[in-house]
Amino acid sequence: MIRIVKTSVRKLRDIYNRLAGWILHNTHHHYFRELPERMGWASRVLLKLFYRGISSSTAQTAILQKIDPDAILVYANKFHSDFEYLFYYSRYREHGLPIPEIGLGYKIYLWQPIPRVFRILSSYLDYFLRHGRLPDPYTSHYIRDALVQGKCAFLSLVEKKGFYRRFVKAETDPVQYLIEMQQEMDRPIYIVPHLMFFDRKAPRPRPGFLEILFGTGAKPGNLRRLFTLFKNQSKIFYEISTPLNLKTFVQEPNHQPLSSYHLAIHLRRRLMVQFNRHRQSITGPVIKTKEELKEGILTNERMRNILAQHASKREVSIHEVYKEAEEYIDEIAAKYSNAVIAVGAFVVRLFLRLMFDGVSVNNDILNQIKSAARKGPLILVPCHKSHIDYLILSYIFYINNMPPPHVVAGKNLFFWPLGPLFRAAGAFSIRRSFKGAVLYAKVFAEYIHRLLEDGFNIELFIEGGRSRTGKLVMPRLGFLSILLNAYKNNACEDMNFVPIFVGYDRVPEEKSYLHEVEGGKKEPENLRQVIRARKALGKKYGRIYVRIGEPLSLKTLLEENEIRLQDAPQKTFNTLCRGIGLQLAHAIDRATVVTPHALVASAALHFSDDRFTKAQLLTHIETLMAHIMSQRANIADTLLMNHIQAAKHVFNIYRNRKFIEQITPEKEAIDIEPLFQVNEGKRHNLEYYKNNCISSFIPAAFTALLIQAKDAFQFSSSDFRENYIFLQNLFKNEFAFDPEQEPEVYVRTVLKSFIDEAILMPHATLPDTYNLTSAGYRKIALFSNLLKPYIEAYWIVLTYLKSAPKNTSTPKDRMKKIQAMGQRMYKGREIERREALSKIYFQNGWDFFNSEGIKGSEDTEKIELYAERLRTYLHVMAP
């Protein structure tokens, strides 16, 4: 009987085993932690519809495509979220990217196919009957095997009761498990951080009532997620942070002696810091109230010592000094408002549509900028041509999911009613001069220190103001030195300087600029100007061009030059400051976009008073275009598509604006090609637009001028070094030169371009020797004449210095006399170009000659040295 029972039990067990093996496919590796690659069609459709409003960025998904295809991928987010896990599963499936099938720490029930649910439950029951416990996907090596076979996982760093499960119940820590996996294999595991955003608002220091109920933007509750998803889906977006190579992480020298347990702690901390910095690079730091800001600035130890010393030195009470410092903070500080930023973005979008034909931006660099922002504050350094500059940059950052920067703005801009709006949009005030305002300077520096310490991005105009000439103004280093001092005092781990070119086909402020260039007084900004500006809304100003350069890390720069700023002497500090200023200015020049308006102006001004045909103008444009193409300059899209058509379009615009006039009567123009002439009264207008692109032609202009000065059809490039350096020094107040680039490099690059353009021919037998072609003789004049207004302006200043003894005039009277002399010389045909009569060129020339020791007519020897050179240049450029 017993034998029969045993036999029956054995048969039943065999039947059960065969049935269980058939149902379970001979494995217990069935878990709710996995979403199968082939989900049911109904589930796929529902998830696709549910998440359809959340936008995807190809720039973000491209990050995944760059990872080693042999690597094991583990996607990670900060907080446990079924909402996010299902989104990445659904969206990546649509895009054909690796799908996060394995949920480390997740159990997904609802979206499993019904047969799979039955199989999982059967597996749990069978395993429990056999072993008295439920199966563990970690100890059974299921997770390891699945990842090795190419499946992708999803991991959350912060889980509900995660600490309790790991440290009290001693459950497997997924992070430690991945580290142990990596230590046992050569194949790399990449952890790819993902962040989902439900708004772009900067966090507040204390959550409001609704945030307490429904969660914050960083950690929304389920109701807030669903409300945002159905009410305003466009607000939701996600970003992928820099992937972390776990193999590299565990092999770091300081990690070698650590156990997997301690490595897991270090890895969590690093990823948490990365998550926080990435989120801050999108939303910005916590916005503090005005009171918190004042408290932070006025009560820190460094500022308390400064205020105490100031009170003692001035022999006033400490309370009076605190009151004065508080008033300075009120004068300086921005009052950043998320609501004003959002409304401002809408207004700027409307404003751009009304006034401009579009904005051209090199968006490809923005991901690099975002990555730099996670390591330290960004210091945006754009050129400054218009009040629109700071509006457009803040707008570009806003629409690309980056916090608009705090903007340095002159105190003159904070008039009612725009002042409060500017402050709310992130602008803070700076005086034109700190002279005599010692306490103000200290408070201002401390405010900048606080901004950097909190992680805010800052936008500064290194030129100190808008350019009235169209070209880059040489750097003003005062604010830059404040930034370097803040870094020296450990305000931040790093700061990244971002050079930016902002250019326009036409600038709305053109009329006022030319008024100032010709010697007129600048009108202070006021409400009347704002009211008058409404007229500009009915005009079209062409396109805006924004080119963002690669960020320059201050930390890396100091390491490369082996400078420890905290210990650096003042001379080293000053040299570093000047070097960074010039480097940024040169980087902005490199990013300059050559526009059709600038190119046509450059060609038209070459003709001076002579008449020209449209065909002759287009020939010059062809020569200039060929050169910038060979130099790989940034060129406007319209020029790249069809430069002849673009030039003709701008030519017609200049005719309509009376910059260029037809001098052949209309009746005669029917039979012959009409002649044109630049309107003498509009030469300053064209000079402004020529200067928009002159930085792209300076090496060619210098080289062409030196070839003309040789007064020979055969020459060697080695003859030019000394004279090229002379020109660089002569125009050091006009143009930014790369301090690290040797003159020979510029000359040889230009000569190669001239050979390609048939301006020069290399000598058949003599090395480093060139012959000027007959066609080239005419073409090089086009390049050298770009410098003619500057040389004539400097000649006027030098002529004045010949006749004026030292210290006989105030700066204001001196400038009036130089302008009067320029007018006389122009009327007497001693100089040719009306555009040389520029107050700004005169001031730059005066500053240069003074820096060379020429103070007045007594400095005869030095005056004659420069006079001889300038006479030679003017002679060879004569028509």
Q: Any descriptors?
A:
Arc Repressor Mutant, subunit A, alpha/beta, 879 residues, eight-stranded mixed sheet, 4 domains, Glycerol-3-phosphate (1)-acyltransferase
DSSP strand content: 5-15%
According to CATH, the homologous superfamily of the largest domain is Glycerol-3-phosphate (1)-acyltransferase
Briefly note the CATH topology name of the largest domain.
Glycerol-3-phosphate (1)-acyltransferase
Mean pLDDT: 86
Low-confidence stretches are none
Task: Characterize the largest beta sheet: strand count, sense, and whether it forms a barrel.
Answer: 8 strands, mixed
Can you give the helix content as a percent range? 40-55%
Name of the top-level CATH class of the largest domain? Alpha Beta
Radius of gyration: 34 Å
Beta strands, count: 21
- Which secondary-structure class do the elements indicate? alpha/beta
Oligomer: single chain
CATH architecture descriptor name of the largest domain: 3-Layer(aba) Sandwich
Distance between the termini: 127 Å
Instruction: Tell me the count of domains.
Output: 4
